[in-house]
Amino acid sequence: MIARIVAAQLLLLPLGAGAAEAGAPKPSARPKLAVTEIRAPSGDAELGKLLSELALTEASASGRFSVIGQSDVAAMLGLEKQKQMLGCADSSECFAEIGGALGADYLLVGTAGQLGALWRIDLKLVEVRKRQVAARAGESVEPRPELLADAIHRCVRRVTAGFEPPVASGRRKAGWIAAGAGAASLVGGAVFALLARSSWNELKDAEAAGDAAAWRRSRDDVKGRALTADILFGVGIAGVGTGSWLLLGGGGGSSPRAGVVPLPGGAAVAVEGGF
User: Percent of the chain at pLDDT above 90?
Assistant: First the structure.
């Protein structure tokens, strides 16, 4: 077979001083989320503290925010502002003012109480800059602490579901770029493989006719087109493989970037970032 598939070329370029000197963009900072106190419906202070910590842990685990908890809120606001926050009731304007005092982009506010024979938890995500509620979630459960804890986990996941971690977003973008470049390279490789095959047939015809000049010309065409096909197939395999890996969640750390880098005699798919 004239056009043989060669090993894929894959360059992994870690971010470092060189990238910084070249002016490479830094990954987007995560928005800051302040998690306020959630009081237990039973009035149990320890249970309320636990509920607040559960909300804090779940919000932090989402990877979507830089989270500050109740102790940070207390230290940053002071007693008077905390009293004001507790009196905000359902006022988004009031909560937005508190969020601004904390330097937070979002405020996670929770209320828990009794609704007949059930316990009720309601959470809302206040967008400080727009001074409005970005998302709400609530559940009613039987009056058992473990059920209320599960409800808080679910509610936090729902109100934060629309916010994608910047790293994941950058990883998917890099994945699509790498996969697209790889697919284009595979198509180009197939075209040059067909051209090389055509030149091979011309070479055989020239050999049968005894035409030395046509034979040399066809031989050079075969070599050049086969080499180009090899390079494009290699880059295509690398690009599609890398893109698929990134799209399926491979890699971590800083937000990666991808592109096609020209090399002497060919090219390579380059993925830059932390993995």
Answer: 13
Give the span between the Cα atoms of 248 and 130, in whole angstroms: 34
Q: Please state, in angstroms and rounded to a whole number, the distance separating the CA atoms of residues 197 and 4.
A: 12
Find the angle CA(57)-CA(59)-CA(61) to the nearest 5 degrees.
Answer: 65
Q: Measure the CA–CA gap between 51 and 39, rounded to whole angstroms.
A: 8
Q: Which two tokens mark 32? A: 């800051």
Q: Where are any strands of DSSP class E within the chain?
A: 10-13, 32-35, 66-68, 106-115, 118-127, 132-141, 257-263, 266-272
- Mean pLDDT, range 79-87, rounded to an integer: 57
Amino acid code (one letter) for 137: A
Strand 66-68 to 32-35 pairing: parallel
Q: Cβ–Cβ contacts within 10 Å for residue 193, how many?
A: 22
pLDDT number for residue 148 = 86
Residue 101 pLDDT exceeds 60: yes
Q: Which domains does the chain have, with CATH numbers?
A: 10-26+166-272 (no CATH), 32-160 (3.40.50.10070)
Give the separation between CA 252 and CA 85, rounded to whole angstroms: 37
- pTM value is 0.47
Expressed in angstroms, the distance from the first to the final Cα of the chain is: 37
